[in-house]
Design goal:
mainly alpha, 2 domains
């Protein structure tokens, strides 16, 4: 009998896992067997679409950085006591750019969230087929884990690691460094975004607005870095899963 996890080595007598898989950390966790109707479907199209939308999110953040710089400069001048029609026009332009950047970022982010979740759920289901017993969280958490307070700080990472391990080449698990780096930066970006939003919302004077613009500038820069790492995770995981599926199974067309 072939090992039900790696599908490469013979299972130990009286068991379903080979000696190597029995000693892995995942084997000691409570596994979820593949749900009924789990089948392989190509993640390539959704993966590429997700990467493109993440790039658009980064582009929207880059536009927002431009608006941040304009706001930072004009608020600094106002804090220094500058006045007159020219400064007023610059302030009005900064407000308009800020509003436009907020709309662009929101639209890009919402579109990206929808496609990303579709991709994430697909690779999660595929991972059940590639490694039926290698999952510590049920399939529904692939969506719900992102929206449930508190647990959304670590459930998506755990699910991603389970998918990553299931999608790694047979007998050659890939290290988790990229996933951990992306998740760490993602958490930092959440904290930075919340801090910047609170600072901007509470800004009533030119010095406070100047400080809030600096917070927004830093936050948007972190968001770009987090989006870049997310693109790498999506593309790497999509490629790993696609190559492993072709190596050991037939993909169902998207």
């Amino acid at each position: 009998m072939i090992c039900s996890r790696c599908h490469q080595f013979a299972a130990a007598p009286g068991g379903t896992l080979c000696a190597r898989c029995v000693t892995t950390p995942e084997a000691t966790a409570q596994p979820f067997a593949a749900a009924p109707m789990a089948r392989l479907r190509s993640p390539v199209g959704l993966g590429r679409a997700t990467a493109v939308l993440l790039a658009l999110v980064a582009a929207a953040d880059l536009f927002a950085i431009g608006a941040d710089v304009v706001m930072y400069n004009v608020s600094g001048d106002l804090a220094d006591g500058a006045s007159g029609d020219a400064v007023s026009r610059r302030a009005d332009r900064a407000d308009a750019l800020y509003a436009a950047a907020g709309v662009v970022q929101t639209v890009a982010l919402l579109a990206c969230i929808v496609v990303f979740l579709c991709w994430f759920y697909r690779v999660r289901v595929n991972a059940e087929v590639l490694s039926p017993s290698g999952h510590t969280k049920g399939r529904g958490w692939a969506i719900g884990g992102w929206f449930t307070p508190i647990v959304n700080l670590w459930f998506p990472r755990r699910i991603t690691l389970d998918i990553w391990d299931a999608s790694s080449p047979w007998g050659a698990p890939r290290p988790h460094g990229l996933v951990n780096a992306w998740w760490t930066l993602w958490i930092i970006s959440l904290v930075a975004d919340r801090s910047a939003f609170s600072a901007y919302r509470g800004a009533d004077t030119a010095p406070e607005l100047h400080s809030a613009a600096r917070h927004m500038l830093i936050s948007d820069a972190i968001d770009i870095a987090a989006a870049a790492l997310a693109i790498l995770v999506v593309l790497r995981l999509t490629r790993m899963q696609h190559e492993k599926a072709l190596d050991g199974a037939v993909l169902v067309a998207a």
